[in-house]
Please model this.
Amino acid sequence: MSSTAEPAHLNNNQRDTLLRIFQHPAGHNIEWQAVLSLLEAVGSVEERHDGKYLVHIGTEAEVLTRPTHKDVDVQKIVDLRRMLTGAGYRAVAEELEAEGKEA
Model:
């Protein structure tokens, strides 16, 4: 199975954030800064003049708003899952989870 996503360029914190985004049920303590770091590693992030972020991952583009608290909400996790899945990162998360279970 070939994926366009490459996990080698992700650091340990970014890999952990990726795994937590795909966990079921969705976690309630995924920090915005960790998500931002992951998004910058897998795509491009541009902070706009209105304080929102234009994120491109693969062919997906979305405008995200910084949460009022340090953690992202469940709806944002759902949106991130969709974007990351479209770019092939669900398979990466599954591979990382399988590797973690083998260790």
Summary: The chain has a mean pLDDT of 87.
